[in-house]
Amino acid sequence: MKENLKRVLGLGLTLIMVLSLAACGGKAQTENVGNTTEGTTTEDSGKEGTVTESAEPTEKITINFSFDQGVGEPTQEIVDQFNASQDKIEVKTVLLPQDANVVHDDFVNKLATGDTSIDIMGLDVVYIAEFASAGWLADLGQYFDNTVTDTMIKGTVDAATYDGKLVAMPWFTNSSVLFYRKDVLEKLGAEVPTTYDGWMKLADNAVGINGIEYGADFQASQSEALVCNWVEYVWNHGGDIFDSNGKPVINSTQNVAATTTMKKLVDEYAPEGVTTYAETESEQVFKEGKCLFIRDWSGFWSSGQGEDSKVTGMIGATTLPIGEGGTEPHSCLGGLDLVVNTNISDTQKEAAAEFIRYMVSAETQKNMTLISSQPPVVKDVYKDAEILEKIPFYADFYSVIEGGKSRPQSPKYAKVSDAIQRHIHQALTGEVEIQKALDDLQAEVEEFSK
Amino acid sequence: MSKNKKNDIPKIIIFYAFVSLFVGIIVLPFFWQFMTSIKPLSEIAAMPAKWIPSYVQVQFYINVFTKHPFHRYLLNSFIVAVTTTLLSILIGASAAYALARLRFKGKKFMLMAILSISMFPTIATLSPIYLLLKQLHLINKYAGLIIPYITFALPLAIWLLTNFFSQLPKGFEEAAEIDGCSRLGIFFRIMLPLIKPAIFSVALIVFINAWNEYIYALTFMTNDLMRTVPVGIALFPSNYELPWGDMAAGSIVVTVPLIIMVLIFQKKIIAGLTTGGIKE
Amino acid sequence: MRKNIKKHNFMSSTEARDAWLMMAPALIVLLVIAVYPIIRTFWLSMHEMMLTDPSSGYPYIGFKNYFNILKDKKAIEAILFTLKFTATTVSFELIIGYAAALIMNKAFRGKGLVRAAILIPWAIPTSVSALMWKFIYNDQYGLFNDVLYRLGVIHSYKAWLSTSGGSFMALVITDVWKTAPYMALLILAGLQMISEDLYEAAKIDGAGVIKRFIYITLPIAKNTVIVALLFRTLDAFRVFDLISVMTGGANRTESIAVYSYKNLMKFLDFGYGSALAVLIFIVVFIISLIYMRFLGNKLTDMEG
């Protein structure tokens, strides 16, 4: 080793020199970054400023539009089309990672400190109430009348309204669907069941057929996905989270029944690890061909039948089942709304409204649906022949979305959701009795609903 | 084991069995991660697990750089870690020299203060630094990460360098004094060159600490293109795909350079690590 | 290093002044970016500060946030979990680290390789090692299940991260894997201070392996071990990356740092979150004071 010492030393010194060179570059960059931001609040460093400012009229208003990468490419396409279509406004995109929590935290961090670097945000529908109650969202009512919102699915507009004000504009929606293995049902000669009991009975017979190992598959990891799954059991057993006065009604008998059904599926039908599954993990097992059915978002219709899937062509879709006490199936609505930062100037707001108008026109919505497979909010698009040809599944899907419900709207949604995730997860893993878990959850939600 | 006798052989076998087991457990996760990164997608989920892929594919490595801005993560980490390291050593070296070799009142207190600052839990300074960076518009800027990194890198550098300086034999200064060197002259012309190798050890350790930091990077870099490697890779998972393969490939990409660095410089790193924590 | 201070002529008069001058840049930087933020965290913890509710004006509320910690079941659970995690990981790391150090304290072929291998877990980011191990524990295609199944320990694949017991074990194994080697290095450095002659002398006196361990190795390596132990304890107490990546705090694996982070950055409750952060700071600070007591001689030496 000793003879190496000199060599190592030499190498080390070279490296230090290289490092120091590199670092000077790094420092310079840091300073640059600092300089660009001091005067202006327009854009984050490193952001893809895809549209350059060269050779353009100087009077253009710049709008910064931030959303998650999940819809990055199609949205960029639409934005480019908008930028080309007129010469007053220029929309720049700011991409965020594809994770609802990260996106939420990023927006909150910006808005809580009165930041104006972002004008329009693509915000998950569950956070509308939280953002609106904090006073961060511009009232869109002054820019849009009913003629715009009347074209949209009612549930999505309701979810965009807070305190009677239109604080957000539905952009695209999403809803869960029960996907099942057509081939297995055909082999069994079975109809599509409409109740949880029916599905369990079917699952008892299905194991072993065409590689089926598990009767059920869904998302029960301690995450937002668990909240979506659980509230569906609750609604479909006739229960709810808050009553019409906004009081928590979590430890009701219906909710105990709902949670019991869910736990039974966890214990007896789903893969061992289902309480660690979010969407991706659950989809993987289904795509392996091991599950009879999976509760998942509508987009799985296409992503579940891709190259890496062993069940391509074998997937059917239906509404969620109901349980005892349930009357009709409700699935959990998701999707993104467009919201406007309240701190920006009026001129900026007007420009933002114009861009939003473009985004929710029937034509753009159809376009977006064609290139992204995201369910649109404008009703007519579901009846469009071109759309139905490309996504035949939308014919039935429309009724699913119409029956969809939003997760409880609360200004403290982040805390409500966190509490649901913890307590329900403990009930499902058997750490805590169901009744006790719901009692604890009730007490906790009461505590911060005061 | 220089004087092995024949009846020692079973002992040696047991000994090596232990050593191999130990090394095996250390290496196994990397082996598995590497195999995962070159497996075809269909074999990642194979049951029973396939240890050796039936053929090698590099798609995941391509994904890492095409589906995710991984080159940006690497660049960001590099810029931040290198700048942090250099600044810490630049600012820390003279302080370490003073602490190790000059006489003044309150030295013990200063040493303790610096050592305890190096142990500050990052979470404890998170909220004020966050508010401060917000005010200065430094969120999502390199400076916004380098500044908080200095909080742990600088005391660490000072502490380690102090140890190295104090190991130098006494008497250098006296000789230099006689030659008429000023204090700064002694520091720059005599002491610094003497501990060059030690500076390198310290730089490596500080660099690795900065490179691996998680909480600050997670909080102060919210723009995907500004994320560092440890955070970027942890946020690969998304609602739309199962990226185990990508994550495996990403881990290999970040781990291999670190492993090479460790293999080349292990003596220096060990020297740096052990000098700080252990009483001589 | 001894304290034979020979006052010399012109330099000594300026020595203290020069020392402070040379330390000044570092001290100023540390005051601004480390000491001030800590004080400010204390200050924040005395206020009601929900960032989502700027209209409240963030009033001063004294120690109310701290009393709330005592009333908060989740906080108590997080503290207990952190203590359990710290105690478990540190003891395993000590045992394994010590054993590994004893092995490596011999001269054998391939020792360099082992020492290098040992550094690898230390060198990679915790988040990356957490991801690797998370994949290993996967219920459907994880290595952990595969190995145990082949060895006949389990008869069907288990979802290790779906129960609190399994998650705890998974976290402990991962943490021990990452830090026991580091512990081994520190202890090894201590062991290497024991001279071979001492052992040889004991051998000649007829002391067996165990006696030599108890009477020679243990006493001499004691301080080293304590220092390594304290260092790991304060590290384990602030555990964040590992848990945040591996379980996200699910299945009752929320450490106090994770819980504090959640309050700060998710609920934007800067008052309460800061109070939790201060709590971590105080515990870590106390451990580091004890740690420094054991380093005491060294600190005094440097004074020389």
Provide a descriptive summary of the structure in words.
The complex is a heterotrimer of chains A (450), B (280) and C (304). Chain A has 450 residues and is an alpha+beta fold. Chain A folds into two domains: 61-174 and 334-401, D-Maltodextrin-Binding Protein, domain 2 (3-Layer(aba) Sandwich), CATH 3.40.190.10; 176-332 and 408-449, D-Maltodextrin-Binding Protein, domain 2, CATH 3.40.190. Chain A is 48% helix and 12% strand. Chain A has 18 helices and nine strands. In chain A, the strands form two sheets. In chain A, strands 1, 2, 3, 6, 7, 8 and 9 form a seven-stranded mixed sheet that branches. Chain A is globular. By secondary structure, chain B is mainly α. Chain B has 13 helices and no strands. Chain B has helices at residues 9-38, 41-44, 59-66, 70-101, 107-118, 122-135, 142-167, 172-178, 183-194, 196-212, 215-220, 229-234, 244-277. In chain B, helix 3 (59-66) packs across helix 13 and helix 7 runs parallel beside helix 13. With 304 residues, chain C is mainly alpha-helical. Chain C has one domain: Orthogonal Bundle (MetI-like fold), CATH 1.10.3720. Chain C contains 13 helices and no strands. In chain C, helix 3 (73-104) packs antiparallel against helix 9 and helix 3 (73-104) crosses helix 11 (256-266). Chain C starts with 8 loop residues before the first helix and ends with a helix. The relative contact order of chain C is 0.13. The interface between B and C is large, with 105 and 114 residues.
